[in-house]
User: What shape does this take?
Amino acid sequence: MRIDVVSIFPAMFAAISEHGITARALERGLWSLECWNPRDFTHDAYRRVDDRPYGGGPGMVMLAEPLAAAIAAASQAAGDAGGHAGASPSHRIYLSPQGRPLTHDRVVELAAMPSLLLVAGRYEAIDQRLIDTRIDEEICIGDFVVSGGELPAMMLIDAIVRMLPGAVNDDESVLRDSFADGLLDCPHYTRPEVFESMPVPAVLMSGHHARIARWRRERALELTLARRPELIERARTAGRLDRDDERWLAAHPARDLGKGEGTG
Ligand code: 9WO
Assistant: This one.
C-alpha cells in the first residue's frame, strides 16, 4: 500500500516510520510513506501556509492554495494524473474532529485500498473549499481536539498497516485483537505468579485449554457489558455471540467494574 501525507510537520512521521511494527512493515516493503509539505508549495517570501479567518474570530485558517498544490503533487507521484494503466486515484482522507468516527470495520476496508492520501491540518481549521473539492472522506479518531491532524493521521496509519498481510507475526495475531470479534479484550497476566500478593487467576495455571478459553470469553463479555454495553448488542446483531455467550449474559446483569470513568 502507498500512503502519502500532506503536513507542515513531516518530521513527526518518524514516529511510525522508524519505530515498531509500522517500521518493520516499511522495511518489508508492505507499505510506503511519502510526506508533502504545503510550505514547499508556497510562492511568497514568508512561505505562509495560514491566514486570518474571514468573518473574524480567534485562530488562523490553513490556506487552500498550498494544500491544493501539495495534494496535486502527491496525487501525481501516486500515478493518479498520469492516466497510465492500473493507476487508480488515491483515496483522500482529512483527519478532523468533524469527521465520521473511525471503526475497526472501516480500518479493514481502508487497508484493502491500493493508495491513501492523508491531509493533516494545523491551526484552527483548513479552508472549507479545500475540503469540498479535494477530500473524499473526513475521519475522526475520537471526540477530542488535539493541536493538529498529524497524531490522528499516524494513529490511522498504524491501525491500517498492522492489518496488512505479513505486518504482524503469528504471535501478535491481529485476528485476536480487541474489536476483531466485536468485544473488548480479556485481562492478561505474565510472570511472576504472585505480584504484590496478587496471584494470577488459578484457571490460567490449570493447563485446561477449554476452561481457559471459556474464562477469557466470559471476562471479555463481562468487561464489554460493564463499559461498552452497546458493543454487546452490536456483536449480537452481527451474529458474533454463541449460545454459551447468551447463557452467560442472561445470568449476569450489567454491573460496574470500575476504572471505566469517562467511557459512557
Ligand atoms: C484550533 C483552534 C484555535 C483557536 C480556537 C479554536 C480552535 N479550534 C481548533 C481546532 O479544532 N483545530 C484543529 C486541529 C483543526 C483541524 C486539525 N486539528 C485537529 C485534528 N485537531 N484534532 C484533530 C482530530 C482529528 C481526528 N480525530 C480527532 C481529532
User: Anything to note?
Assistant: The two ends are 36 Å apart (CA to CA). Strands lie at 2-6, 32-36, 50-51, 61-62, 91-101, 115-120, 125-126, 137-140, 194-195, 198-199. Residues 58-59, 95-97, 99, 121, 124-125, 140-142, 145-146, 148-149, 152 surround 9WO (CB under 6 Å).
